[in-house]
Amino acid sequence: MSDEEWEQFLRESVTGVADAPKEPSARARRVANDQREESAPPAGWRTYTPARPRKRKGWHVAGLLAAVVLLGVALAPAQMVDLIGGDNAESQPLAAETGRPEHAPPAEPALPPTLDEPFRGSPAAHWASGTAGITVPEAKATGWMSTAQVEHALEATRTFLVASNLDPGVPQGRRPNKAMSLINPHQKDVQAFLKTAFRAPSEDNDPLLLFSRFKTSQARLVGNVIKTRGRISYEAGERGALQVTADVTFIYPVTRAAGDTDEIVRTIVRREVVMSWEDPAKVITESGTFSVSSYKLDMTNGGCGSSTGYFTPTFGAEQSPSAAGAGVDPYDRSAPMDQGSRDADAGCRTATRS
Fold first, then answer.
1. Is 154 within the bounds of a domain?
2. What is the pLDDT of residue 65?
3. Which residues of the chain have pLDDT under 70?
4. What is the pLDDT of residue 262?
5. Domain of 180?
6. In a domain, 18, yes or no
7. How many angstroms separate the CA atoms of 92 and 126, rounded?
8. How many domains is the chain partitioned into structurally?
């Protein structure tokens, strides 16, 4: 290379060549990229991108299981209902009863009761247990009582119902002393009734009119749960008293007291008791007690005939067809109670379902 060429090379290395390519700046590269993206065709608003196909592995197994279930329901519906659902109704009780229902509860699958599930196949499977099934309304000042006094009276009314029908000893035949202590001791006619009823029970003086009792030598309760459904209501009564009405149905599953048997029947008892919480300034009474205004009993499979002071349910062949009277749905709470369901003239009514 000559000296002139070498000098030209050094000069162009410093100043550059006029037509030599130059590397674009960062801004120039970003603008170029934006232009390329804007020139691409836009995606259509109805464009559909198909999902990746899924493998249908296992569908034949599910179909086979469904076929087996349908076959089982066709051949043994009761057993399949029991296997699939069991007595799940008890885990989802009905809402509390706050007023008279419009109709009877719907029919249940014809499943027999068992020692583990004594309410199976019965509307009572949907009911609450014990005290939880008795609805107590909100208290408001009524008559001579303040709101707090009305609240106390309503709770005492429910305590009476529990002590009369639910306390463990009472259905087993023990004397309901706690319940009787809540009744006005100065109410002479009712006190005379109580004294006679336990000593010499009769049709007119029968403890079953107020208390639920079984003779342990004849029948025993199954389990320790008694299903209940009903409500307490109140209004102003005579002489400024607080009149409280309780309308509650009790379901007692029982089996024979003796013998090796798993036969279970249900004695169904509906009670209406009207209580008057009197103004002590106008009526002789004791604090924390009420006067009994009236009581009604509607009972199925609790005995028929002479009064013994105990419910006497019948089992199997013990039920005489000739003794059966008019049919009644004991779970129907949509109508007011009848009077004298155990009167001789009325006969012994037969439950259309248990």
1. yes
2. 56
3. 1, 6, 9-10, 12-92, 317-326, 339-347
4. 85
5. 114-351
6. no
7. 7
8. 1
